[in-house]
Every structure is written in C-alpha cells, then in structure tokens.
Design a protein that fits this description.
Blueprint (H helix, E strand, L loop, with lengths): L10 H10 L6 E4 L6 H8 L3 E6 L2 H11 L8 H6 L8 E4 L2 E4 L2 E4 L2 E2 L6 H6 L1 H11 L7 H6 L12 H19 L5 H16 L17 H4 L6 E2 L8 E4 L2 H9 L4 E6 L8 H4 L1 H8 L29 H11 L2 E9 L6 H9 L4 E10 L16 E10 L3
Parallel strand pairs: 1-2, 1-9, 2-8, 6-7, 9-10
Antiparallel strand pairs: 3-4, 4-5, 10-12, 11-12
This protein binds S-adenosylmethionine.
Length: about 400
C-alpha cells in the first residue's frame, strides 16, 4: 500500500533496534498499525501481536496478515460455488498457468514467496482467479468514483471500476450468506484493496483524482496474492489508541509497545476515504460529498493530526501505557517538536536511547502555502525506552 507514514522502508532499522535490545518474543503491541507492515514483521520475528488502528481497511489488513495462522481452505465457499474448483491451475516458479494462459503471480505482504506458500494458499489462489474473471458490473461504487460514473470522479478507470464493483459485491454477498470465515473474507478484501490502490488515478492519496487517466491507472486489475508471515495468530482491534491502551493496561504489561502516530495534519480518514469505503462497502448508507466524494466526517478524526491536540494526546497515551520496552517512531517535521516528545517519554522513567535516521520523504503533493517541504530528506526518529532497567 502506498501509505503516508508507512514504515516499510524503515523495517530494517526497527528490526535492528529490536535485535540490539535483545527483544525476541512476548507481546508486541502496535497501536497505530496502518498498513500493518510493522505488525507483520514482528509476527514473523516470533512476537504475539496486538494490532490496532482507527481505520477499517487497516483492521482488514490486520485480520488478513496478523490474526491469521496459515491460509484458510475456503471449504464452505468451494462447496457452495463448485465452479471455483473448475479452473485448471499449474504453478511454475513465479508463473501461473490458468488453463493454457500464462500469468506472472503478483504478490503483496511480508511473507516469503515460495512454492510452499503458493501450495498452502492454493484454494485462495483459485478464489482470486474466480473473482478476477467475474463479468463487469456498474453499481454505487462505480457511479461515485470511476471514470464514466454519474458523479464524474475518475479515481479509477471505467474497466477497473466495473470489475471492482463486481468483485466487491460478490465478496459481500458470500459473506452475507455465511460462506466465508473471517480470515477468508479479510484475505479477499485485503487483496482487492491492495490491488485497487495500485491502480488509483491519483497523485498519491485520495484527496483528489487526476482528470486524465495516468498510465498505471490504465493497467488491468489483477488480484494480488497475499504472502502471509509465519507466526502465531495475533489480536486485531479497531479503536482510538488512547481508549484501547486503557482497556489493555488492565490485562498487564506489554513486552514491547510500538507507537507510530500520525505526525502531520493529514487526517487518514479523508486521505484514504475510498479504501475505507471499499472495506466497509456501505455506500447505501451515505451520499459521497463534494468534489472528492468524501465519507461523512465522523469520529475517525484523529487528535494526533491537530496542532492543538497532538502533544496532549501523546502525553495522555504514554501516561496510561504499561510496558517493559517502548519504541516510538516520529519525524523532524512532525506537529510535536522533538524536545517535547523526549520530555513526555522521559517522564515515564527508564533507560532511554534516541536515534535519528535520514529518510526519503513521502511526497503526497506539491509544495504549497500550507505545506512547504524542506527538501527531499526528512529525519525519522526512533525513540526507545527500557523500563526493565
Ligand atoms: C503513521 S501511520 C502508521 C503507519 C504504520 N506504522 C505503517 O507502517 O503502515 C498512523 C496511523 O495511525 C492511525 N491513527 C490515527 N489516529 C489514531 C488514533 N487516535 N487511534 C488509533 N489509530 C490512529 C491512522 O489511521 C494511521 O493508520
């Protein structure tokens, strides 16, 4: 996922910090999990995960990658929709033969690509191929967000919009009939969200769409195969971290608490509203608003994105948290200044270690009066507190 604040490129540093501090197992709590890449990595390292975020698409990724233990077999669905099994499938390395048609397998997720993972996920692969071949359809999603839709918003090409509508509506129908287990539903949805995100006709986020279809948006939708990290199935929550931390504090101390709050004023609910709608599939409950087709502004607004709320929310979270080891990601252009973060963290006591990592910036849009970037490099901070000492 192309996600603001994703720590995908910083995973080696985070992994390195965990190794250096001798942190190998126990409960790892990722309270702002976003694309879930940090949770996926920690799961693969042997931690027991608790993963939380405000957004529904993040919870979908969490249920697909963090909560799961291996690939589900879609047994009920295959019984109800026997056509799924009729595809003749042969896997040769990274290539897939469907009948006599050859395709390259496209994947996502932090698991390892191997013949074994494909074999274990063979039923999932069959379902994805079945969904990929559904006849295009026009419905509320197409009309609201796709080229040729009545709303005139071109977030996706006409063809991809029609196929997405058919796939998403079918997944919903299967779920409503009780043909999908939770993990099966999440894996199909995560694949659709990831695959559509890569074809979005935007400069980067969903705050606006481009008028003309860009080259990548013209490519045909193909559902990607999720590579699941090995490890124990974790817990996935969806709520405000400042409330969740209080519920979790009653259960005892986390071994590692990882915090990666938003650091600027870009609210995730508006910048990723289309992914949220794909996850919720609730266009029967609201009318997309304005030029960009936003969802109703509701409780998903985060204090961490507000100049007057971020430091207070962060201090409140740290105050309520119960952990042995704390890792916090932030950066030098964040709303809360470095010194203030340090001061808040040090109030908690323990042995501290602060690192700065030069990092290429996420450019969501052009420089403007509101957003004046200071070059292409930012400094990512990694704050560590050890309260065992
Ligand atoms: C910097 S991103 C996290 C990125 C993530 N670590 C990754 O690598 O993809 C911040 C995340 O915090 C979430 N968020 C914002 N406010 C929140 C809150 N009060 N409680 C829980 N999650 C929140 C956003 O939805 C967003 O996914």
């Amino acid at each position: 996922m192309n996600y603001i604040g994703s720590k995908f490129s910083l995973l080696p540093e985070i992994r390195g910090m965990l190794a250096e501090k001798g942190l190998k197992g126990g409960v790892f709590c990722d309270l702002f999990s976003g694309s879930t890449v940090v949770s996926q990595m920690a799961k693969g390292l042997g931690f027991s995960l608790i993963s939380n975020d405000l957004q529904t698409y993040s919870a979908v990724f969490g249920r697909a990658f963090v909560a799961s233990e291996g690939y589900p077999d879609f047994s009920r669905l295959r019984e109800e929709v026997p056509e799924i099994e009729k595809t003749f499938l042969r896997i040769e390395g990274k290539e897939l033969w469907i009948g006599d048609e050859r395709q390259r397998i496209q994947t996502f997720g932090l698991g390892t690509f191997s013949d074994e993972s494909l074999l274990e996920g063979k039923e999932l692969l069959l379902v994805l191929i079945f969904l990929d071949r559904l006849a295009p359809r026009e419905g509320r999603f197409f009309q609201a967000y796709c080229e040729g839709g009545t709303a005139g918003r071109s977030y996706f090409s006409r063809e991809n919009g029609q196929r997405c509508e058919a796939i998403r509506a079918t997944i919903e129908d299967w779920k409503n009939r009780g043909w999908l287990a939770i993990s099966e539903h999440a894996l199909l949805l995560a694949s659709l969200i990831e695959s559509m995100d890569l074809l979005a006709n935007t400069a980067s986020v969903y705050g606006a769409y481009l008028k003309k279809l860009k080259t990548s948006a013209r490519q045909a939708l193909r559902l990607r195969f999720p590579l699941l990290p090995r490890g124990k199935g974790g817990r996935v929550l969806q709520g405000d971290s400042n409330q969740i931390i209080r519920q979790l504090a009653q259960e005892g101390r986390f071994d590692v608490l990882y915090l990666d709050p938003p650091y600027n004023r870009r609210q995730y609910h508006s910048n990723y509203h289309i992914l949220e709608t794909l996850a919720c599939w609730d266009l029967d409950k609201f009318e997309p608003a304005g030029k960009t087709g936003l969802r109703p502004v509701e409780s998903r607004r985060s204090d961490y994105c507000l100049k007057r709320g971020a430091a207070k929310a962060f201090a409140d979270l740290i105050e309520a948290a119960n952990f042995r080891h704390l890792l916090v990601s932030y950066n030098n252009e964040g709303i809360v200044p470095e010194e203030e973060i340090k001061e808040i963290l040090l109030r908690k006591g323990g042995k501290a270690d602060f690192r700065k990592i030069p990092y290429r910036r996420f450019r969501a849009d052009q420089d403007s009066a509101e957003r004046n970037y200071r070059g292409d490099q930012v400094e990512e901070f990694l704050f560590y507190i050890d309260r065992n000492k």
